[in-house]
Amino acid sequence: METASARISTRCHWWSHTKTVTLIWFISFVLFYSFFHMALQNSSQNYPSSGGITSHSHIPNGERRARLYDKMARDLDDHGAAFLKQGETSQSLLLSDIFTLKDGSVTPVHKAANPPVRANVLYLSPKYSVPISDAVKRIFSPHFDKVIWFQNSSLYHFSMFHASHHISPVPATEDEIEAEATAVRAVAEDLCPLKIVLDRVILTSTGVLLGCWQVISGTDPMTIRAKLRTALPNAPEKQLVRNPSCLL
Known about the structure:
Blueprint: H1 12-31, H2 38-46, H3 50-54, H4 61-73, H5 75-79, H6 95-98, E1 99-102, E2 105-108, E3 118-123, H7 126-140, E4 157-164, H8 174-189, E5 195-203, E6 209-217, H9 221-231
Antiparallel strand pairs: 1-2, 3-4, 5-6
Helix pairs in contact: 8-9
């Protein structure tokens, strides 16, 4: 369905403004399922990994997701608002690494990944992403002008599996990338379209507002990720989305 941050001044007034920028940017960014997949890695690192969940094979996948979302919903109460302390983002980067203030507006700092990230995603159609984007803009823009960076709604997606990412890069030749694409295409041809529903919206201790989705019908995310793991044997063992049951 994926930069820069507010610079902090030593003056108290500027610090207060920075906290507001930090909070509002995070809320809008993750709701949009941004290009940098920020919510995805954070949730998987803070909550049980695939090994901890799949050990209970008798538990339906929907129940696994519900239990994970329950645990995530307690994160803010358990750990407090750590995002106000300028901590790491879900990509193991500081806010100052990925966003800045330019002419009073939050502006992303673009950085090239080398090698480039190769991600398999479930695309969210503009039929659904545009209403989400419009709703968030209507709510936040009148109160927080210029302190939110709105991701292009045509890029909304769910991150499923990485053949390479910035933490564990896997270099590949053009022929190897084409072979990966062929393998992924074969997996996709055997999948059924997903019908999903928004289960809940939660705010984490790192300041991320997460839309947590449940699957009504279609191929379950756990199955999709397992098939992609088999199809892409050279992919990083440690995935950005470490919990295969989630759909964020």
